[in-house]
Amino acid sequence: MVNLNGNSKVLHYGWFLITYSNLMVIVLMFLVFIIAIALPSPTRKHKIIEPNKEVAKDGQVISDTSAGGDDL
Is this model's pTM higher than 0.85 or not? Predict the structure, then answer.
């Protein structure tokens, strides 16, 4: 790890100037962000039932009581 009690070591590249400890924190935050995006999000265990539809216990749609059809 990085010793934060002593003199700081600095990365100087052209106009870019940052301490190694701050650079390490930024890189770790970036990695956590990428991992959070890459991991699959949790899913619901229950099916989402659309309004105006009756569904049997086996998941089959019994009747659709929505008004009209494709009027577009």
Answer: no
